[in-house]
Automatic annotation (TrEMBL):
PROSITE patterns: PROKAR_LIPOPROTEIN. It is found in: Cell outer membrane. Residues 272-567 form the RagB/SusD domain. The keyword Zinc does not apply. It comes from the Bacteria. InterPro entries: SusD-like_N, SusD_RagB_dom, TPR-like_helical_dom_sf. Belongs to the SusD family. GO terms for cellular component: cell outer membrane. This is RagB/SusD family nutrient uptake outer membrane protein.
């Protein structure tokens, strides 16, 4: 039987008589319909398999375009475009994201179209899993390639809606991109259908009723407008779907000490995880561990490139309520989320001791750079030396070893006494381990799609947009006080809700591919005023054309119909 390869689905078989059930080969529709019980699991396995290849560029697109990380220098890898905002349509990682997303949509759609509902609870649940994956894919694709929802969703373009195999694959003419509004409505429709059909409890590596509800809570939050101009209808729906997840009683926030090692738990054994894309160590044999998303954030046990680090902006947020100290002899995580950062302290080769330094960030013209100046103590006086210049430190908070100096450029800089951190080029290596060490396996990581911490923050933001600041404060502090003992806010109101809730989302959801989308969907500017090779003083507004990624040119070139590109300026 002839297989038709269509560009938008990128090698997904759309033949009316064959289904590509990657990576397991093909299965004809008659076999599927006549024996759905035997057929469904292999088909579902193929659908879930697409999420593995999809999740890699999904993470890089969402996280690298934000302000939680920095890279040591420019790179020839296509992911550098996500960091630099030098958008192009000829990016193989974009193509991988698009292709894998639409493969998952195609495989989910073929299951939905070929299997009748009502045969058994098990079959209905399997169909519900397919609706979940399809709805999730439409949402993720739309938020990447479509503009934020508050910006004219009735006219701005989302993504093509292509559900299943067309009847006539010979004279195929697929539709152009639907509007953002219609794309969101497709995702919502699928997820509501999933919510209805998903009745069997499985582990968090499978779609569930609560996973569908969690995704609906996020989607409605994305539709809820900005803090200045909220859409209260959608904010209320975000609250209602968050309520469903929270009130199910199936999930719980991990205690602080367990949350600090959240990344090491397999998702099936994590009480906070609602849905994660399961990865296993055998998928990353040998040096291939380098190529997991955690491989760019750290080198662990000789594995990983270790070329991206926590940004100074993110570290500053972690330190806002008190300095986090990673030194062995004074280890103290004021904010539990600092446990996902691991500086590479270096001992002196001759003495075997750490070198004490005063670390601060200075301005070199229009460039920000780290300085690690060796310290000398004489009684209560502490000095530091950079080159031929020596400075006396002035106490800002001696108990936390925070000091300031009057620098030779006439400016006053504040920093901390710490041990010397190994440099990569000129940047201290603040390794990130949140996407590594699952099961203590180097950079093994099952990407988290939804977890309970996010759901509380979804509800907090939605409550704030509804003007219910008391309820918003309760949810906000539930998450905040888990990480910062006694760090809850005493009040929340229209003057501070936006700043405080968004800051908590940044702290809590860092390295989960949410940050850049969170900034722009609320109409805010992205600024990255910290060391790194990026444009340090560039402001990217929510109206910037670069907020959306380009449709991959390969998809446009071979699409059977018109596929409109995003604006280039």
């Amino acid at each position: 039987m002839k297989k038709i390869v269509i560009a938008i689905l990128a090698t997904v078989v759309l033949s009316a008589c064959d289904i590509d059930r990657y990576p397991h080969g093909s299965m004809d529709s008659e076999t599927i319909v006549s024996d759905p019980d035997a057929s469904l699991q292999p088909l579902l396995n193929g659908m879930y398999a697409q999420l593995k290849s999809w999740s890699d560029p999904m993470h890089r697109m969402g996280e690298y375009a934000g302000d939680n990380m920095m890279i040591r220098g420019s790179s020839t890898d296509a992911f550098y475009e996500f960091i630099s905002y030098a958008r192009t349509p000829n990016n193989y990682r974009l193509t991988q994201f698009w292709n894998s997303g639409y493969k998952a949509i195609a495989q989910a759609s073929n299951i939905i179209d070929m299997i009748d509902e009502g045969q058994s609870a098990e079959i209905d649940n399997n169909i519900g899993e397919s609706y979940y994956v399809r709805g999730m894919m439409y949402f993720y694709l739309t938020r990447a390639f479509g503009r934020p929802y508050y910006q004219n969703p009735e006219t701005n373009l989302g993504v093509p809606i292509v559900n299943g195999t067309p009847d006539d694959v010979i004279n195929l003419d697929l539709p152009d991109r639907a509007t953002v509004k219609d794309s969101y409505e497709q995702a919502i429709s699928d997820l509501k259908k999933a919510e209805q059909l998903l009745t069997i409890d499985k582990s968090s590596i499978y779609a569930s009723k609560e996973a569908a509800q969690a995704m609906l809570s996020r989607i409605y939050l994305y539709m809820s407008g900005t803090y200045d101009s909220p859409n209260t209808e959608y904010a209320q729906l975000a609250v209602e779907y968050a309520d469903k997840v929270i009130n199910s009683g199936k999930y719980s926030l991990l205690p602080r000490d367990q949350f600090m090692i959240y990344n090491t738990f397999i998702p099936e054994n994590n009480a906070e995880t609602i849905f994660a894309i399961k990865r296993v160590a055998s998928e990353f044999s040998g040096y291939d561990h380098y190529y997991g998303v955690g491989g760019m954030y750290a080198n662990i046990g000789g594995m990983g490139w270790g070329e991206m680090y926590a940004s100074a902006k993110y570290i500053s947020l972690l330190d806002e309520t008190g300095r986090n100290d990673w030194r062995e002899d004074s280890y103290n995580m004021v904010d539990a989320r600092a446990a996902f950062i691991r500086p590479t302290y270096a001992k002196d080769a001759s003495t075997g001791e750490y070198t004490e330094v005063f670390r601060f960030i200075k301005e070199d013209g229009d460039v920000l750079n780290y300085v690690q100046a060796a310290t000398t103590r004489s009684g209560s006086t502490i000095t530091c030396t950079e080159g031929d210049d020596t400075y006396t430190l002035t106490s800002v908070d001696a108990s936390q070893e925070i000091y300031s100096i009057n620098y030779k450029d006439g400016k006053t800089y504040t920093g901390v006494i710490d041990n010397y951190i190994t440099l990569n080029r000129v940047y201290p290596q603040f390794y990130i381990i949140k996407a590594s060490l699952e099961g203590e396996e180097s950079h093994l990581h099952s990407p988290v799609i939804s977890r309970l911490g996010e759901i509380y923050l979804n509800r907090a933001e939605a409550y704030a947009k509804l003007g219910d600041y008391g309820s918003a404060l309760i949810d906000l502090n539930l998450v905040r006080e888990r990480s910062i003992v006694g760090g809850g806010y005493s009040s929340l109101d229209a003057s501070n809700a936006s700043e405080r809730i968004d800051k908590e989302r940044q702290l809590e959801l860092a390295y989960q591919a949410e940050r850049s989308y969170d900034v722009f969907r609320n109409g805010k500017d992205l600024t990255r005023h910290y060391p790194g090779p990026h444009q340090q003083f560039e402001t990217i507004s929510a109206d910037d054309y670069r907020v959306t990624f380009y449709i991959p040119q390969d998809a446009i070139n071979s699409y059977p119909g018109t596929l409109t590109q995003n604006p280039t300026e």
